[in-house]
Amino acid sequence: MNNNDMTREEAGKLLPPGAALAWGLAKPPQRGPKREMSIDQIVGKAVEIADRDGLAAVSMSRVAAELGFTAMSLYRYIPSKDDLLLLMQDKACDIPLPPARPAHEWREEMREYVRGTVDIFRAHPWYGDIPIFGIPISPNNLRVVDWALRPMRDMPLNDYEKMSFVLLLSSYARSYGMIQRDMDRAVQAGSNAEEFGGVHYSAALRALVKPEQYPSLHPIVVSGAYTDENGEEKDAVGNDMDFGLERILDGIDQYLHVKRDGGAVK
Amino acid sequence: MNNNDMTREEAGKLLPPGAALAWGLAKPPQRGPKREMSIDQIVGKAVEIADRDGLAAVSMSRVAAELGFTAMSLYRYIPSKDDLLLLMQDKACDIPLPPARPAHEWREEMREYVRGTVDIFRAHPWYGDIPIFGIPISPNNLRVVDWALRPMRDMPLNDYEKMSFVLLLSSYARSYGMIQRDMDRAVQAGSNAEEFGGVHYSAALRALVKPEQYPSLHPIVVSGAYTDENGEEKDAVGNDMDFGLERILDGIDQYLHVKRDGGAVK
DNA sequence: GATATACTGTTTATCAAGTAAACATATTGG
DNA sequence: CCAATATGTTTACTTGATAAACAGTATATC
Question: Does A170 touch chain B (CB under 8 A)?
């Protein structure tokens, strides 16, 4: 099928409106009064509010109010709140990427990708709260996917294998990003009030997680490793994120060897 | 600190109300009229609604109405909607676990865990839509964590290493579960209406994802692997989920070897 | 057994949020 | 110049969570 000669306008119609906006597929209006806002401005303010007060604080009225307009005015720019969320998500992905590395440094390049992704979750704690609608389809989000693929450009892998590795890395990055975010929050809240989750939970869980029902989990709850008290002393092998990540990289590495040498392992 | 002699009641006070309910930490009322509902019944109905019409369809009024009561009556049982969501999540984790395997079959046991987790996402497509509040603290959810730990019971790993491996497996399972869910949806929607995402997007993305801006992603979009058209023909190495999973298992395996043999690889 | 108490489910009432529709006003292509 | 098309605002509707007051009911206690 020859879809390659589809115009950007046509493409815009196939995408959800928010995605079309993110791609800049919107004919600038020819008549009518000058616009007093811009999509960038709106999304920027929304991100600002979410950074400050969380995603739940982002309402159409709040965003509009902080820009000095009424809620309904936003709908002249963005057709729905879901679209605003998509645009926020894409904005959070608008980060500078480090330069490419030589092919043999693929492990380090993958590490950079995972760190960079985790950093998005830390920089914008609300990022992980946006419901996932499906595969990424917005421009900056796709640049991040492209980044994930970059270290594999010279690997003898087919497209599905590459996508599988992207999934491996990105799902780990997401989960770790969320954990990291929660830990950031705990630190912040812990300094202010002693009211935070983890510590309280660990006492409760020790009373509830019985060895009979939870034979494998029990010792880990008792030791405090489950609720992650004393969060630092585990840095023997590198930090927590790196440990899991290196296992993934080892798994990838091994596959490459097997595929090249036909079964033998390094 | 000697937290072990905390009573279940005391523990309940430290947990969010929803979690306390999930653990059954609620003194049955001594006076007043007989209760006409039960928590199980409410949560069951909420799950039923979510299974049928999605998480957004679960409102206090809808749940109450389908049980023949008013919205406010639910608050006599569950203090807030967030608590209801936690209970739903826990209920979805109430699944039968396969019997333990001998230690040397740890790979298969981990596979079973990942498959089982993915199946939760498929059985309850709303499961992944529930916002994550932190680490699991409800009983069935923790049984699943215990399951994940089971294959590691005899491994020479410290608690943090075990938790890292759990994170590795569970984050992969979550991401793959969500993808699988979306694919299930696409199949369902595709048969009814041709209106579904993936296929439409792929045409649009081919027009937008230019090789200059997306050098690594472009070929994959063009081939259709990104939007996952022709979802089957990639079964050369086993199915899609297994491929990534085997890399994780290889990574774990290798670590075990290195740790035992002090650096050498199998 | 009477009654105060602690419950039950209901009714009524807020409040917030998303968004449709109608409106007055501002630009600009023809 | 003016019809057409925008813009931002006002008004209004809907849905959802949940607080508060209420009327009826079972039990503990006297």
Answer: yes
